[in-house]
Structure formats: C-alpha cells, structure tokens
Amino acid sequence: MADLAVIILTYNESIHLERALRHIKHLANEIFVIDSFSTDNTIEIAKSHGATVLQNRFVNYAKQFQWALENAPIMSSWIMRLDADEIIEPDLSTEINEKLPSLPLDVTGINLRRKLIFMNRTIKYGGRGVLVLLRIWRRGHAEIEDRWMDEHMIVREGRTVTFLGGFSDYNLNNLTFFTEKHNKYATREAIDVLNQRLCFMPRPERMLIEKSSLQAAAKRYVKEEIYNKIPFQISSVAYFLYRYIVRLGFLDGKEGLIYHVLQGFWYRFLVGAKIQELSSSVDDLREPEAIRERLHRITGLTLK
Q1: Cα–Cα distance between 78 and 141 in angstroms, integer?
Q2: How many Cβ atoms are within 10 Å of 141's Cβ, its own excluded?
Q3: Is the confidence at residue 78, as pLDDT, over 80?
Q4: Which domains occur in the chain, in start order?
Q5: Which of 87-101, 159-173, 205-219 shows the lowest mean pLDDT across its residues?
Q6: pLDDT at 207
Q7: What is the pTM of this model?
Q8: Closest CA to 167 of 196, 131, 199
Q9: How far is residue 222 CA from its own chain's centroid?
Q10: Cα–Cα distance, 60 to 57 (Å, whole number)
Q11: Which contacts of 18-23 are long-range, i.e. CB under 8 A and separated by 24 or more positions?
Q12: Residue among 176, 177, 188 at smallest CA distance from 299
C-alpha cells in the first residue's frame, strides 16, 4: 500500500461508499470517513471496510474538510481527497503505488484527471470530459479554499504534477437528487458571488496556477472576472450554447443533452436568479454583520 491517507466526507452515502472503499482497499494505508451524522448504514459500511469514522456537524464542504485535516489522526506522508461517489480505477491505483514513493521532495501536490459518468454515459464533450483537480498532497503542504461552493485544494509551496490513470465521478442517484443537490449548490454559489461584491465575509486568496491545476485556476479566473460580470439572462444562454455547440456537447447523445441543459443552462440560470434575489434582499444594508444575519435567515446557511 502507498504511504497515503484517504479522506471521504459522507452523509447518507450507503449507495456509494462500499464501491469507493472497495477501489482503494489495496491503495491507502489509512482511510478516514468524516460523517455528518448519517441516518442510513453509512457508518456500518465504513467500519466494515476498516475505515476510521469521525463525526462532525456539517456547515459546508470546505469547513468540514478542513476540520478533517485538523482532527483526523493522520500519520501518512500523503493525503488524498475523495468523494464517496468517485472511483479510483485500477490503473490509477497502480500509478499511485509506483510513483508516489519516488517523487522529488519539491513535488507537494498531485493532480488527477477526473471523468464524469452521467446516467451511465461517460460525458466526453462540452468542456466537461476531463477535469484536472488537485487531489493528493504531502501532509501539511495544502489546504482547502474557504468557500461555500467550488472549493479546491491548494498547495502552500512546491510544485504539482499530474497522474494519468482512471478517476471517475459516477453518482448513482436519480435526477430528483441531482436537481435538489444543484438547487442547494446554487444558493451556496450565489453567496460566494455576493461576497465578492459586498465583502460581508473574509474572501479566500486568489487561486494561482502554481498552487492548483492550470485548468482549475483558468476556469476560476474566467468565471469571476468575466462570466459573473455579464447579466445572467445572457451569460447562462451563451454558456450553454458554447458548451453544446462550440464544444460539441451534442455528441454526448440524449444523456448529454439532459446533462448540458441541466448543468450548463438551468443551473447557471438558477445561480444568477438567486444572486439577483439575495442581492435585492440586502440592498438596504451596509454593515457586514447585518448582511450576514439577513442572508442567514433567508438561506439557513451559517455565515461566519
């Protein structure tokens, strides 16, 4: 096994967790499941596969993961972030085992190339085929961005490399789950965008290429500096057309049409609409504490 600890955040993930753990059982020498008080048998599944289970009240993904980094008794030299619905495929497992021990000391982070499987179809087009994400790092050399949505790991020093093995995001839940989840995501992303404009909470530092992947940093720059400054009625339509026509999303078939419409148009439009709604609700306020309190009452999110 690699000198590697894997951290998985869970809440009612019985549908996915056994699969995720099965794919890393010969890879990691430590597995930590950080659970948000699941009501199904998530904890039993985790323990049956030898994982160490810790529980903590969930506020958002970034705060929960940072809690894990600070409280899990990690002894391994390397740490991996893995979602319960993600799969480490055998070739990537082999690559990690073979390459991890021999990496130079100045390499502190490893990017993985994640593909997306939606409704049992691998999405290859629309700019969503492969996402390059920092998912493995040397213990003590990385932290997670303190954001409500689209949080990434960033390394504090050193350089990153990219492994090429198979890594999949394969959620087994239905479209009702997908739309409900993205409705919650939209509220969180709207809070992040509003905070950029109104500064009612501390803002995370700008993501730099050398601290994450080039792809992640470039996408973040385009979203914050260009996309978010265009009226959402225009940007959401333009983004969908760009993904579906220019980036050939139509080649992903009927499953791709569903995905690109929901995630590339409906979700982006919903985020924009929620930004407008929440912005209007605090137009009369100037003090950060007052803005946070009102947004807390409206969204139910614990804003600090």
Answers
A1: 10
A2: 16
A3: yes
A4: 1-84 (3.40.50.1100), 175-299 (no CATH)
A5: 205-219
A6: 55
A7: 0.91
A8: 131
A9: 18
A10: 9
A11: 18/45, 18/49, 19/87, 20/82, 20/83, 20/84, 20/85, 20/86, 20/87, 20/88, 21/45, 21/46, 21/49, 21/51, 22/49, 23/87, 23/88, 23/89, 23/90, 23/93
A12: 188
Which secondary-structure segment (H or E) carries 81?
strand 78-81
pLDDT digits 0-9 by tens, 160-174: 999 999 999 999 999
Q: What is the dihedral of CA 177, 181, 182, 184, to 10 degrees?
A: 150
- The per-residue pLDDT for range 6-35, each reduced to its tens digit, is 999 999 999 999 999 999 988 999 999 999
Pair of tokens at residue 99: 């390459």
Long-range contacts of 221-228 (CB under 8 A, 24+ apart): 223/150, 224/196, 228/193, 228/196
Question: How far is Cα 229 from Cα 223, in angstroms, rounded to an integer?
Answer: 9
CA distances from 185 to 68, 151, 166, 299 (A): 21, 12, 26, 12
Q: Which of 136, 127, 128, 50 is nearest to 88 (CA)?
A: 136
**What is the distance in angstroms between the CA of the first residue and the CA of the last residue of the chain?**
40
Mean pLDDT (the chain) is: 94
DSSP, collapsed to helix, strand or coil, labels residue 120 as coil
Q: Which residue, 40, 45, 52, is CA-closest to 18?
A: 45
